[in-house]
Amino acid sequence: MKRVFFFGEGVAEGAGLGKERLGGKGAGLAEMTALGIPVPPGFTIETTVCAEYTRAGLDGVRREVTDSLARIEASTGKRFGDPSDPLLVSVRSGARSSMPGMMDTILNLGLTSATVQGLAALSGERFALDCRRRFLQMYGDVVLDVPKHDFEEGLSRSRAARGVASDADLTADDLRRLVAEYEEIVRRHAGKPFPEDPHEQLWGAIGAVFRSWDNERAKTYRRLHHIPAEWGTAVNVQAMVFGNRGDTSATGVAFTRDPSTGEKKFYGEFLPNAQGEDVVAGIRTPRPVNADGSGTSLEETMPRAYGELLRVRDLLEKSFRDMQDLEFTIEDGKLYLLQTRNGKRTGFAAVRIATEMVSEGLIGEKEALERVEPEQLVQLLAPVFPLKEKADAVAAGRLLGKGLPAGPGAASGRIAFTAERAVEMAKSGAVVLVREETSPEDIAGMHAAAGILTTRGGATSHAAVVARGMGKTCVVGAGEITVEPRGAGLRARDLRAAEGDWISVDGTTGEVLLGQLPTRPSEILQVVLERSLSEAESPLYGAFYRLLGWADQHRRLGVRANADTPGDARTAVLFGAEGIGLCRTEHMFFEERRILAVREMILSETVEGRRAALAKILPMQREDFVGIFREMEDRPVTIRLLDPPLHEFLPNDEKSIAAVAAELRVSSEKVADRVRGLHEANPMLGHRGCRLGITHPEIYETQVRAIFEAAAESIRAGGRPRPEIMIPLIGTRAEFEKLRDLVAQVAATVAAETGQAVDSKIGTMIEIPRAALQADKIAAAGCEFFSFGTNDLTQMTYGYSRDDAASFLPAYVEAGILPEDPFASLDADGVGELVAIATERGRKANPALKIGICGEHGGDPRSIEFFHRTGLDYVSCSPYRVPVARLAAARAALAESGAAASSTA
Ligand code: PEP
Ligand code: MG
Fold it and tell me: Which of 644, 696, 765, 772 is the most buried (most CB within 10 A)?
């Protein structure tokens, strides 16, 4: 079977094969070639070879590679290793989903001490030597494991000796000495001379790029982005074109639309006389592609190439029907495209681009939904700095500088100057990672930080690309700020800051300020919640609203919210919740004026005493429910009866013990004794949930009475409340039956008293494995709904304490024992099997059973996909995640119908 695919001169063997086999870069090169866009010829070794490489090396593709190399030679008219006019190639990784900077790349391959002479004769000595020193460094680092800093030290020494700041100012003589020094560094570390045979170089490079799939930073990136290890990377070998061939040459990157805002304007940066990594590495600050009046833009300095680039941009957007991130090189005035891929973008840009492309007729609604990751919506809700506080800080002289806005939102945090320190410091509070520039090694620190600031680099630098992908607040290229060596601090004009000092970065404007700033709601929240901005004033809100409207048309899962107060209920409805899936009544008990009555209830030793205390609680609970019913109108409201163990409500300091004692007219000692008496060794598995309802029925009776009295009152006020009474922690049918009868009896009594019939339901949480297995018995006992409490279900299925698992889960994930934290994303294999069993058995016994989920997983997109496939009726999550869940539910439905379509095709 063919596994190496040539592209060049309008022929692309791999066109249409797709990213699965060719990787993103390979597929892009093949498509561009087929579109007639100027692409230097090359070939792609497909992704399946990556896994095979570890077992069997490259023997399986040796002949195909050699044949394809010959085709590059034929098409360029140059020969590999030809001392008079050598063919040079780049060797690059390219996975199915882009992993910016995580794997290795080698440029200028084919340069030997003989071919460097030929290149010098043709293109100038300085240029040839510059290529050679870059190649020695990259190949030494990637293939021969020579420590990078040895090369970098050599380079800074040369710059210092010549007294220049930029590599571009080194002379041919400097470079000749540097090349000799690099060759020596390689010999010393590798124990043998640098390979002089270009074929040996090529095989070494291909192998190293395949190996780089498994380097530590690639593995971390895959874990963070849920990319399967089996995918593997492809390898692309391509004839070099040179952006560092003098002032008519350049290299750059561009986006077909603005990746920060999504605005439909061409957006890019370039560096004259430079090679690819110079732009992304952020070492020299690049210039804009579009004219900006500075006279240095590409549009102004190379208008022909710029015009050609605009033509390519239109072709690419029409053909790929998505925003493209492209890399180009101009060699002696001629434009070449080296890469195109779907560009990474902020949540703002994702929503805007998807909806505008629908308006432009480029894509349909379903595709628009597939283009926005549910998690990206969180960014649209992320806080911003209030204008006034920011202006005050600026007026007070705290503005450190301004860089390019590269990642959304606003963040204040303590300064960390290294990724390691960021990870450490983030354990005890918000951190802003401050670096000259970031590199792939910093990925863990970037993840841990609340915000990222770099003093160099442009909008396509590593920091910007990665932060955008993570949805993290980021400012890059804040050139007025200087980071001092070895974490000594930062300074800007007369301002200074050290590690641990507060700093604030505004990812929307690029401003960087000393000190901590408060934050305020985002634009969307200003429209939805505050109403301080009208819908018409916010095109972003318009796009957000349209997209979620399409999501609602395509999803099958209902979306409810977990809300305990009328305020939360209102927020939930404004975000589109169709009901409350979990109202945790215990939160109502904690309110200041109530906790005393609650404590009285718990601490009194007689039923009468408890009833007296409960009588004080009843009106307050009733008032809460009236408020919630009012906000929810005729939407269902699932109310869970008291769940946590009683001691959670108890006083544990002397002052509050004395207060309860005074109220109960007993001694403090007696109260303290009772508190000790209620202590449990393992409260999560102790006297909580329905067990409380069974031993202290008066508690549940009071709560149910409050609910039905509130419902009656709401009906009298013209409402249509729909309470659903939910019993927590059921493990047996008998428990459910007993409490079902209690609820029914109180409901009947209240109905008789008020004369109001309430449309209500009774059901249970399924959060104990036994309940999942006995779901048919429970469903048959008059149970009208199930709601999976996947927090407890995960805890009890794994036997991991929810409150203690943080001490070992990170180590488990790190070691690959668990793919991720099962409390954050549902374990589909184990916990999920219990969910599936309970759903099937429950529905068999009671086909009308409504089934939902209200654990934390209800707001997690991947878990939502599982709940969709398992056939649940709804998910319930925190109000702010309702938009995420709506989109995730739609995407789950689309993924399923897409899968169905392709399996019948
Ligand atoms: C659950 O266990 O998943 C649940 C929703 O209840 P809680 O988190 O209150 O225990
Ligand atoms: Mg629970």
Answer: 765
